[in-house]
């Protein structure tokens, strides 16, 4: 079962995302702040498959801090950054630093929870493919 961490300081948003992902049979942990999210990433026994994080929490760059911590723990963790205040500069910075995707919380005419679920599925596929490729390279190196 895929393990997902949802980090958002807005209780209603975090709970709605977690509920939606649990409906898809994912194991979901929640953190209500950047600091709790960073602590959760650090102390988890196994790295998360996907981390969904808000961009702006305690700090202007909370999402980037979470992104760096998640990738520092496991390079193959896929990180999706959410924001209510999207900007091209933020999106570009997150993608340059290794985010899988960048999603605005409010898109007119779009169910963001459906969109996010689709992005999580794609992120999980990308993680599986990357790990498969790594295993193949390791096997080739042994032979």
Can you offer a commentary on this structure?
- The protein has a 5-stranded parallel β-sheet, with helices on both faces.
- Helix 1 links the parallel strand 1 and strand 2 (27-31).
- The model has no long low-confidence stretch (mean pLDDT 92).
- 52% of the residues lie in helices and 17% in strands.
- The protein has one domain (3-142): Response regulator (Rossmann fold, 3-Layer(aba) Sandwich), CATH 3.40.50.
- It has helices at 11-23, 34-43, 62-73, 88-96, 112-142; strands at residues 3-7, 27-31, 50-54, 78-83, 101-104.
Topology, element by element:
Elements: E1 3-7, H1 11-23, E2 27-31, H2 34-43, E3 50-54, H3 62-73, E4 78-83, H4 88-96, E5 101-104, H5 112-142
Parallel strand pairs: 1-2, 1-3, 3-4, 4-5
Helix pairs in contact: 1-5, 2-3
Summarize this structure as a short list of keywords or feature phrases.
alpha/beta, 5 strands, 17% strand, single chain, 5-stranded parallel beta sheet, 143 residues, Rossmann fold, 5 helices
Q: Output the CATH topology.
A: Rossmann fold
User: What is the molecular shape?
Assistant: globular
Strand arrangement within the widest β-sheet reads: 2-1-3-4-5
What is the strand tally? 5
Helix and strand succession?
EHEHEHEHEH
* Integer average pLDDT: 92
Name the beta content range. 15-25%
Q: How many DSSP H or I helices?
A: 5
Instruction: Characterize the biggest β-sheet.
Output: 5 strands, parallel
At the first level of CATH, the class is: Alpha Beta
CATH architecture level-2 label: 3-Layer(aba) Sandwich
């Amino acid at each position: 079962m895929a393990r997902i961490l949802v980090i958002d300081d807005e209780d209603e948003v975090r709970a709605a995302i977690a509920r939606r992902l649990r409906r898809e049979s994912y194991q979901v942990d929640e953190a209500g702040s950047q600091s709790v999210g960073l602590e959760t990433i650090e102390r988890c026994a196994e790295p998360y498959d996907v981390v969904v994080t808000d961009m702006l929490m305690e700090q202007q760059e909370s999402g980037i801090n979470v992104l760096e911590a998640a990738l520092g723990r496991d390079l193959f963790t896929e990180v999706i950054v959410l924001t209510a205040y999207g900007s091209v500069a933020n999106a570009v910075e997150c993608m340059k630093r290794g985010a899988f995707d960048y999603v605005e919380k409010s898109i007119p005419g779009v169910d963001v929870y459906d969109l996010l679920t689709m992005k999580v599925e794609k992120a999980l596929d990308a993680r599986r493919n990357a790990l498969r490729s790594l295993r193949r390279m390791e096997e080739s190196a042994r032979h």
